[in-house]
């Protein structure tokens, strides 16, 4: 978004002294529309800022560098991720509180031969396990965001045109969070996985609906929504290799089976002639028509 805005502003400045034209009007309208949606996004949606900050090669340094002249902007971006981060911490703390764990209570000290029974000292003893409560866990979790910032920017080593080593941004932040980030920053990893799994465009969803239309035919118009959902999920899980199954062979070969006993059926039947004695011309005509139909429509291509 920043790059798009820079290109539009630069183009607008270059056309400033030009006569009115479709290009000049288009640039002005595009910049106006971009500013409109940016202001709306800044007020209503924090996810653009969070996505940039969760990029291991950008973090909060990106906004602090690009928005030097607007400190209230990058401060707002950092507040957005802090708010969402606190929500995830509270959610995890609530889940941990729901888990019933039997606490091992500390035994009360007992002095052999002491029958005085100092009730006052006994009354001051507390269970130490209860002191490491939610507040202590929360303090430990809240330092995760600061550790993420303090670790610096993550880069990968590449070779430039001259063969020298150089730093480059992480090309796939989602993969980084699945491997490295998930171990170092578990709370932030949950936010990253929830956020980066959102499709940037709706074309994949549209294709899923188009594929589902082939399932819900006139003959299968009473399929329940759960059944359709399960069918589509299984199909795409198989295509993406998330589920190991022999069905993936059929999908990868456009329906042609690679199972041995089914593969043996993939024979060419175009030269097949049934060994039948025909007595009447009418039956001969029907048989010829049937053979022609087999030759044209019943040919099974080899795998």
Structure description:
This protein has helices spanning 2-14, 22-44, 47-53, 61-66, 71-98, 119-123, 134-150, 173-184, 186-196, 203-215, 225-239, 247-252, 260-263, 281-297, and strands at residues 155-159, 165-169. It is extended, with a radius of gyration of 34 Å. By secondary structure, it is mainly alpha-helical. A hairpin with a 5-residue loop joins strand 1 and strand 2 (165-169). A two-stranded antiparallel ribbon has the order 1-2. 58% of the residues lie in helices and 3% in strands. The protein has 14 helices and two strands. Among the domains are: 203-245, no CATH class; 246-303, no CATH class.
Give, in order, the helices and strands.
HHHHHHHEEHHHHHHH
How many helix segments? 14
Low-confidence stretches: 259-267, 276-281
Distance between the termini: 48 Å
Give the overall form. Answer: extended
- The chain-level mean pLDDT equals 75
Q: Give the helix proportion (percent range).
A: 55-70%
Structural class given helices, strands, pairing? mainly alpha
What is the multimeric organization of the chains shown?
A: single chain
Could you give the order of strands across the largest sheet? 1-2
Largest sheet entry:
2 strands, antiparallel
DSSP summary, beta strand count:
2
Percent of residues in β-strands: under 5%
Q: Rg to the nearest angstrom?
A: 34 Å
